[in-house]
Amino acid sequence: MPTGGPRGSDRAAETKSSSAGTCQQTSPRSGIDLSPAPLQFFPVTARDAAADLAARLSRAGHTAYFAGGCVRDRLLGREPKDYDIATSATPRQILELFPGSNEVGAHFGVIIVRHHGFHTEIATFRTDGSYGDGRRPDSVEFSTPEEDARRRDFTINGLFEDPPSGEIIDYVGGRSDLQAKTLRAIGEAADRFEEDALRLLRAIRFATTLDFDIEPTTWQAIVLHAEGLRRISPERIRDEFSRLIVAPKRARGLELLVDSGLAKVFFPEVLDLIGCDQPPEWHPEGDVYIHTRIMLDLLPDDAPLELCLSVLLHDIAKPPTRTFDEGADRIRFNGHDALGARMAHDILRRLKYPNQVIEDVEFMVSRHMQFMNVQQMRTAKLKRFMAAPTFPLELELHRVDCASSNGFTDNLEFLIEKGEEFASEPLVPPPLVNGRDLIDLGLKPGPRFKELLEAAQTEQLEGRLTTREAALDWLREAAR
Length: 480
Ligand SMILES: Nc1ccn([C@@H]2O[C@H](COP(=O)(O)OP(=O)(O)OP(=O)(O)O)[C@@H](O)[C@H]2O)c(=O)n1
Fold this sequence. Notes:
Blueprint: H1 8-18, H2 46-59, E1 64-67, H3 69-75, E2 84-87, H4 91-97, E3 102-105, E4 110-115, E5 118-124, E6 126-128, E7 140-142, H5 145-150, E8 159-162, E9 167-170, H6 174-180, E10 182-183, H7 189-195, H8 198-209, E11 213-214, H9 216-225, H10 234-245, H11 250-260, H12 262-266, H13 288-298, H14 305-313, H15 328-350, H16 355-367, H17 379-386, H18 391-403, H19 410-421, H20 435-440, H21 447-461, H22 468-478
Parallel strand pairs: 2-5, 10-11
Antiparallel strand pairs: 1-2, 1-8, 3-4, 4-5, 6-7, 8-9
The protein binds cytidine-5'-triphosphate.
Cytidine-5'-triphosphate is lined by residues 68-69, 81, 84, 152-153, 157-158, 196, 198-199, 202.
C-alpha cells in the first residue's frame, strides 16, 4: 500500500544516489553509508486512498468492497472518476473509524470520508424502501452485499471488487453485459425507473458514453416511463445531458433521447427539426435534424461543451413554425440566427447552465450565418469578427456546418489564410488615440466620441493609420 513516505527499495536507491553528494556520511567502522535519505513523496491515487480506507474497514472486521462506477470503469480500462466503497459497517461504525467525516448522507447509510485529499463515499450495504417522490428512497434498511447490488440501476453498475485481491463479485450478471456492451436494468426495469426517474437519462448517457446497446426490455421501460423525467430537477438533467453531448457518440445520444421520448420532456424544440426541409441545393443531406446529427458526428471527440451545444442549437429556429418580428419565411432560411440565439438562450437558461456557457453559445449561434459573408467583409470588420474569444470554436462550427451539407470550404480556407496573415500582431491592437485626445481637441464627451474613436480604430485596423501622430492628425480633421 503506497503511502506518503518513501518505499524501502526506493529509499535504498535514493540513499545510494545521494552518496555522490557533498554531505555523505559513512560509518567509520562498517563503511556503510549513513546519509539521511532525502524525503521523497509518492503521489497517492484516488484508488490508493480508497483501498486504504477499505483495508482499515476490513481490519476492523467489516466487509468492504469497491462498488458501482469505479468497478465498471476499471474493467473497461477507463480511469474511474471516483471510488465508492460499500461495506457491512453501519454509519456509526464508519464514523468511529473515521471521525470527523461528512455525515450528510448518514440517514441513507452514506458517509463521505476525506483521505489523502480524496473524497470517498462509504455506504452501508442497503436495501432501499419505497420511492415516494421518484427521486430518492423514503427509507433504507441495512442489508447484504447481494441485496445492495440488486437495488442498483444497471447490471454494469452492480459489480463489487474486493480491493486487496481484485476479485470481482457479480450478483447481477454485470460482467457478461460489460463484455457484450449491453446496458440492462437490474431486475424489473420498470421498477428501477419508477424508483428514480433520473435513471432514464442515465441509461441514455451510459449507452452514449460507453457506446453500449440498450437491452430491449430496458429500452421499452424507458419509453414507457419517459414522462417520469418531469420529476427531476433541471440541474440534474443538465449534468447528465452535458456528459452525453460531449461524448464522441453524441449524435447517437441525441437520437436515443429523441426516440425514447426523453427529449420531448426537457428539450422539445429539437423535435421540430425533424422533417424541417431545407433547400436541396444547400442541404443535399436532408432535413435540419439529419444535418444537425451529421454535424455532431463530425466534431472532434474532445469537442468542448460550448461547441457541442452551439452545433446542437445552431439551426434551432429554422422550423417555419417559429415566428419572429419579420415573419416566418425570412427567418426560415435567412434570419434564423437571431431568433436561434434567443431560443438557445432560453433553452440553456431553462436547464440552468452557467451564464458564461449561455452567453458563448448564444453568441456563436447568432454569428454562424455571418461566416457566409466573411470574404466580403472589410479588413477592420473581419479583424473584429475574428478577435472574438469564441472564434476558434465558431470556425469549427462553420467547418462541420459546411462539411455536413454543401461541402463548401472556401470561407473556411479564406479564414485560415487570413488567420496566418494577421498572426504577427494582435487582431485588435491597443488604439492609437483615446478619449483624452478628443477632450484635448476641445470636444465634449458624448455619443460622437464613441463614433470618432471607432472610426479611428477602423482606419487603424485597415492599416491606413500606423502612428499616433497620423492618428491625431486624422482625428483633428474628422472632428471638424
Ligand atoms: N440513480 C442512480 C444513481 C446511482 N446508482 C448506483 O450508485 C452508483 C454510483 O453512482 P454515481 O456515482 O452517480 O455514478 P457512477 O455509476 O459511478 O457513474 P459515473 O461515475 O459515470 O457518474 C452507480 O454505479 C449505481 O450502482 C443507482 O443505482 N441509481
